TrEMBL record:
The lineage of its organism: Bacteria, Pseudomonadati, Pseudomonadota, Alphaproteobacteria, Hyphomicrobiales. The keyword Lipid metabolism does not apply. Residues 4-226 form the ABC transporter domain. This is Glycerol-3-phosphate transporter ATP-binding subunit. Keywords: ATP-binding, Cell inner membrane, Cell membrane, Membrane, Nucleotide-binding, Sugar transport, Translocase, Transport. It is a peripheral membrane protein. Its main location: membrane. GO terms for cellular component: ATP-binding cassette (ABC) transporter complex, substrate-binding subunit-containing. Belongs to the ABC transporter superfamily. GO terms for molecular function: ABC-type transporter activity; ATP binding; ATP hydrolysis activity.
Length: 226
């Protein structure tokens, strides 16, 4: 686990306007932060800079004590969960879960231990030998969560992970994500455009507008209209 600290962070895309302007944000160890705001306000860009998937134009990002501006995504000790799951279609669920750990040369017995524990937590034990195409959307999303969990990262980054699911499943998965984060205590940064999701999950909400923080506070503080 670790805190995340963003100091005066900005992003200018080549030939473009500022997507993120001079943002300061300190996320405490174990805190669940949800980023909300209108389409194009910079949520995804901010998340991707923390992940190392976009370069940082100015300012600095730290995970724990470590400045990560020039650290490769794979070496940042974070795990990202995407909207489209990003599972390997030709691999079994087991091998999808094992893939990142095998690359890190984690011993086989340790890989197996972590996979069994995560699969149990997510109730996907009975699907380990299946290919992703033989799973439902909700099961695929659990596998994507499992792949993040087994890495035991310092932080989870979520990019609208539930937006491909139908409304009913979205509600139940929302509860499961909250439950998992409470149980694991892993610092989380979560992007969504769904207000209910934001209110349910967030310790603190960050409202972005045109690349800047417009408001920051607990769900009650942000959504309470006096
Ligand atoms: P959000 O996730 O809140 O919808 P984004 O971070 O995707 O917002 O986008 C913020 C701004 O940056 C938008 O104006 C968008 O058009 C622009 N943008 C996003 N990605 C790129 C890119 N690869 N190249 C140029 N401009 C981009
Ligand atoms: P593929 O999809 O490439 O055929 P498999 O799922 O059959 O891969 O498994 C490949 C490797 O992963 C094997 O070495 C096997 O030992 C290990 N493995 C797969 N499923 C499990 C499991 N449920 N428990 C322990 N090891 C597993």
């Amino acid at each position: 686990m670790a805190s995340i600290s963003l100091q005066n962070i900005s992003k200018v895309y080549p030939g473009g306007a500022k997507a993120v302007s001079d943002i300061n944000l300190d996320i405490a160890d174990g805190e669940f932060i949800v980023l909300v705001g209108p389409s194009g306000c910079g949520k995804s860009t901010l998340l991707r800079m923390v992940a190392g998937l976009e370069t940082i134009s100015a300012g600095s990002a730290s995970i724990g004590d470590r400045k990560v501006n020039n650290v490769e995504p794979a070496d940042r000790d974070i795990a990202m969960v995407f909207q489209n799951y990003a599972l390997y279609p030709h691999m079994s669920v087991y091998n999808n879960l094992a893939y990142g750990l095998k690359n890190q040369k984690t011993p086989r017995a340790e890989i197996d231990k972590r996979i069994q524990a995560a699969a149990k937590m997510l109730e996907i034990e009975q699907y380990l030998e299946r290919k992703p195409r033989a799973l439902s959307g909700g099961q695929r999303q659990r596998v994507a969560m499992g792949r993040a969990i087994v890495r035991e990262p310092k932080a989870f980054l979520f990019d609208e992970p539930l937006s491909n699911l139908d409304a009913k499943l979205r509600v139940s998965m929302r509860g499961e994500i909250k439950h998992l984060q409470k149980r694991l205590g892993t610092t989380s940064l979560y992007v969504t455009h769904d207000q209910l999701e934001a209110m349910t999950l967030a310790d603190r909400l960050v409202v972005l507008n045109a690349g800047r923080i417009e408001q920051i506070g607990t769900p009650l503080e942000v959504y309470h209209t006096p």
